[in-house]
What does this fold into?
Amino acid sequence: MTSEINVLKAQAKVELDKLEAAATAREVAAKTIGKQALLWIFLLVLVGVGSSLALAPEALAPVIGLVATATMALIQMVTGIVTEAKKEERPEITIIKELIQRLDKTDPAMKVEVNEGKVTVQRGDDKITTGGN
It folds into this structure.
């Protein structure tokens, strides 16, 4: 029984990963920019410092202006990603996670009997009978 539950959990995890992988292009781009932004900001600062050492003073202003503009644009993109309101998980993902958690529970089996118009439902010690005259 435990191995069957583990197999079901693994299958559910695979399906959940598939749903989460179906992200929009914007979400994928945001994750990529968020992961690599600090490296790019650092490289842009290095370009600015390196150009101040290597370029003539009259060529320095345009280069520093471009580096500063690119750095500010990147910082604003990262800020937009970080401060974006977290969306609620899609309902199907929430339901799948809830069902995975319920797999471990071992509730008593439910038994339903239908006899001459009477329906009896029994679960553990609880028993309910309805219908019939």
